[in-house]
Amino acid sequence: ARKNISLSENSPPGSRLPLEGASDADVGSNAQLSYTLSPSEHFALDLEKLNEGNTVPDLVLRKPLDRETVPVHRLVLTASDEGRPSLTGTMELVITVLDANDMAPRFNQSVYKVQVLENATEGTLVMRVNATDSDEGSNSEVTYAAMNFIPPSGRDVISVDPQTGEIRLKGALDFEEVSVFDFRIEARDKGWPPLSGHCKVLLEVLDVNDNAPEVWVTSLSVPVSEDASVGTVVALLSVSDRDSGANGRVQCSVWPTSPFGLETRFLGSYSLVLREALDRERVSEYEVEVRAEDGGKPPLRASRGVRVPVCDVNDNAPAFSQAVYTVLARENEAAGAELARVWARDPDEAGNGRVSYSLWEGVSGASVSGGGWRPASSYVSFEVRAVDAGEPPLVGNATVQLFVVDENDNAPVLLPPAGGGPGLDPFAGGVVGGSVEAASDAGSETLWAWAAWGAPAGQVVAKIRAVDADSGYNAWLRYEVLEPRGKGPFRVGLYSGEVSTARALEEADGPRQRLVIVVRDHGEPSRSATATLSVSLVEGGEKVLAVGGSSSSGLVLPAEGGAAAGSASASTNVWLVVGICAVSSVFVLALVLYGASRWAPRSAVLSGPAPATLVCASEVGSWSYSQRQSRSLCVADGAGKSDLMVFSPNLPPPPSVPAAKDTSQAEPSSLLDT
C-alpha cells in the first residue's frame, strides 16, 4: 500500500503526522500489532497505545525539511503482529515536501564590472544580471531593481529591466563628469514574505576624444615696445583638455611662427615670448594665434587669438623722397612766392613722426629760420633739414638746387665794334665810321658802310653785332632786313648778322642804299632792336681814300675832279697804298682781337661738341652741365669760367636758314652764366 503525505518544508521539528494503523483479523495476541519505520534522518515513528491495547503510529518530524534539497521523502512503515510466527504488513509513505519561500534570489556574481564608452547612445545594453531562486512557483519568480547609486546622478542615466535584469543607458554619459558609477541591483521574489538578493555593479565609463583642448590667456603684457629684447614675455597661457590619457595630452604651437614663440615650464602652462626683433613701421600689430591639438584619434584642435600691438620708439629719421631736389624758378617771381615743396616721411607715429623743417647752411652749420631774408645767390644750393619731435630727435636732410629760368625781359642791344665805333665791323669791301648808341624797341640807330661798285655776290659789306642780356632762346638772335622789302642788292645773315651783297653791285643801284635791319630774339613774345645801315656805293679809288682818311664824322666822301687819265706810276702807288693799308688793318685788327680776348672778362661760353651732363628735365626744358674746353662767345662783365650750364627749352625748331653761308651757323646752345 502507499500513502501520500504533503508536508510544508517550513514545518518545525516535532510536527506530528498521524498515520492510520494496520488491522489484523486474528484475535488475542495474534492481533497485537507493532510498527517500525524505515531509517530516516528527518522522520521518526511515535507509537501511542490505546485503552484496548492497540497501538496507533504517528510520524514525527525530527529535522527541518528542505525542499530544495530533498523534495520527496519515501519511507516504509511495517506493521508486525505478535503471533507465532509473526506476520507483517507494509505501507509506503510518500512524503512530498511542500515549498515555502525560504530561499532568497541569488546572483551568480556578487560584484559585476562593466566598461562602456562615453559616447554610447541612449538605449545601449550595458549588461544583463541574473538572480536565481531555488524556490518554486511564485516563490521563485524574481524582479530586479537598481538602487544606491553613487553618484546619485546615475539613476538618471542607468536603468534595469525588472523582468530580465538588463541594464541599459537611458541618458548620455560624460567621462569628464563621472567616470565610474557604483550601484546595487536587488532581485526580489514573489513569495510571502518576499525574499530578496543583492549584487554590486561597477560601471566604468571609458573616455573618448570628445573634448577639444581649451586655451586661456591668464596674463597679457601689451603693447610691446618695438625695441623689446628677444625673450620678452608677452603673455601667459593655460592649456587643458578634459579628456584623459592620450586624448588629454595637448601640444601647442603659435602662428605665425615669427616673431613669437611658445615656451613651457609647467604642464599646461605656456609663455608667449618674443623670438625676433620687432619693427612697428613694418608691422604695427600682430594677430597671434595659439593653436592646441590633443593626441586623440582623430585629434581635436582649438585656438586662441592674441592681439599684440607694437608701440613706437623713435628709431626712424625723417627721410626725403629725393636726396637732391632740382627746382626751377622764373626770374621775376615775386618775393614770398612758393618755389617748391619738399616733404620728408617719418614712419614713426605721434610725436616721433611729427616733422618740422628748416634751412641749413652747410658751411657755417647755422639754421636759417623763416624770419629773415637772405640774398638769392645764397640759395642757389642749400640744405633743408627735417627734424622729428622724438626724444632724442632724429634728423634727415636734402639738398635743394635752385635754377632760375630766364624770362624774355631784355631786348637785344647793338654792340660797338672792337675798335670803339658803332655796332658794325669792317670787312673786305666795307668800312665804318661815325658813332652809334645801342638801339632798342624805342628807336633805331643809323650805321654807315661803303661798298664798291662791281663787288661780286656774297661780298660781306658789314656785320651787325648785338647782344641780349637774357639766356637760352630768349638770347638767341636772328637778323632780318626790314627795309627795303623785296629783292634788294643786300641781304643779312639770319643768325650771323653779316650784311653781304645779294648780287653784283651795279651803277643802277644808285650811290647809296639804305637798309633797316631788325634784330629779334626767340623769346615769347619776342623783343627786337632796329638799326639803319646806310651803304654808300663808291668807285674802287674812292674806297681807298675813304679807308685812308676816315674821320669821326662817320662818312668820308671821295675827292672830286681827279685827273682824267692817271699815269702808270700813279696806279702803282694806289695799289701799293691799298696793300699797305690792308696789311696794317689786318695787323691792328689782330692786336685788338687778341687784347680783347686776353684781358676782357668773359660771361658766356659756347660748349664744345662733346656731350654735356643732364642735370634735370621738365616740361619747360632741360639743364645740362659741362666742363669741356670752351671758346669765347661774347664779352661782358665778370670773370671768365671754364664750366657751362646750358638750358634747352622745349620750343619748336627755328625756321630754316635760306642762305648757304648762313647754314654754317648752327643753332647755338642756350647760355647761362655760371
Automatic annotation (TrEMBL):
A GO BP entry: homophilic cell adhesion via plasma membrane adhesion molecules
Membrane topology category: Single-pass type I membrane protein
Pfam families linked to this entry: Cadherin
Location of the region described as Disordered in the Swiss-Prot/TrEMBL record: 1-25, 647-674
Subcellular location: Cell membrane
Domain Cadherin: 5-107, 108-215, 216-320, 321-414, 455-560
Keywords: Calcium, Cell adhesion, Cell membrane, Glycoprotein, Membrane, Repeat, Signal, Transmembrane, Transmembrane helix
GO cellular component, one term: plasma membrane
Bias kind Polar residues: ranges: 1-13, 662-674
GO MF entries: calcium ion binding
Gene3D superfamilies: Cadherins
Sequence intervals crossing the membrane: 574-594
PANTHER family according to UniProt: CADHERIN-87A, PROTOCADHERIN ALPHA-4
Full protein name: PCDA3 protein
Gene name, Swiss-Prot/TrEMBL: Pcdha3_0
